[in-house]
Give the backbone structure.
Amino acid sequence: RDKISASKKKGLWMGGSVPIGYEADGRSLKINEIEAKTIRTIYDMYQKYRNIRLVKNDLDELGLRSKERVIDKKLAVNMNASHQTKTPNKTSTLTGDVPFSKGHIQFILTNPIYAGRIRHKDITYDGQHPPIIDPALWDEVQTQLQLHANKTRAKKTGLVNQSKLLGRIYDENGARLTPSHSKKGNRRYRYYISHHLITGANTEAGQSNKEAALPNRPNWRLPAKPFEDMIQTVIIDHLTQKQRQLLNLDASAEQIRQLSETLKSIANKEVSSTHPNIDHLDLIDRIDLKTGSIRIKLNGEELSKQLSINLELINERALSFNTLFQYRKRGVETKFIIGDQPANYDGVLVKNLAQAHHFMDQLKSGLSIEQIASTYSASSRMPINAKRVSRLIKLACLAPDITSMILQGQQPHGLTTAMMLKVPLSHSWDEQRLMVDRLT
């Protein structure tokens, strides 16, 4: 096993059934040009249709068939595409030379050998044989196949936690980040990580994927859900702050007003027939990461469709923007820092603090806790019960200097919404300050 692993790391072909498109050439493979035409046709068709069933239909119409092989109990002989007659003996049988099945097409489309690579278990290495398919095209096909698989899986299972940014996040070197996940108990944790940390590509023999994480190359491992939530926030802020630049100068005053109302309702999460909810992640065309900043490019056509704007009115320059970006590990928690916000800025805590003051104002106006919960639930997509309102509202009783500290992102790490809702909060501001001091 160790010899096989070491040989594959060197890019050697270790025998077995020769894939269609190639012929054995010692410890490597050489291209069979006649069969290679079929492989290229399959990839071209998938690029055209993005659908394996339609690819199969065209292959059947063209009369293209699988590789014919002579299988002998003592010796397996691969037939080449010229179909030269080789009479099987009494112990051999002919296989192949049949229409391509959808499973066979899927196998061809996902086999890295056609990109000049060798697979060993879950890791691929650069092979010593020539590629039939350009590696960049092969990678593109893998992205499309995974996108299609995610959509199909979501339709079948109703899952909504798929990696929505698949194929759209790039590192400093222009390489895509790859979706990955881990499981703990019944919970599934999604990530976007640097592709080489999965494949082990360009690592030396004997290196693990962790050892492949070298300082001279990007090593990204982003928790998917927090990252997607952060990106949504960045997009909302950009659209609302740059709404005047979003439309060209020839947009009418009425069109500008309608856009302003739409963006305001989106920022406030108000959904109606005139202001429908939008999927911010679908607006993204590309995300480029580098240490300290992030660049986002929005898709003009998708923005036009979701915001009901004439595509010709959209200012192309406003679709791409940069923002400061950092992420830090704090124990098992990952914290994202965007824009010029302080390093310890807690957006969830700030949001809950504002909500608490809003509830307190309603309580002072004469509404009961139950009425506040009912009113909020009727106007929001996120219903809330009276118990939650009564727990949140005590945040409005924080000392002014503690509130200011939170708004400026200067509070201790341990001062979170969960912590303050869990412990009894004193009405004495001095005692509150002592509690905060103990967390520093």
In short: Residues 252 and 313 are 10 Å apart (CA to CA). DSSP finds 16 helices and 15 strands in the chain.
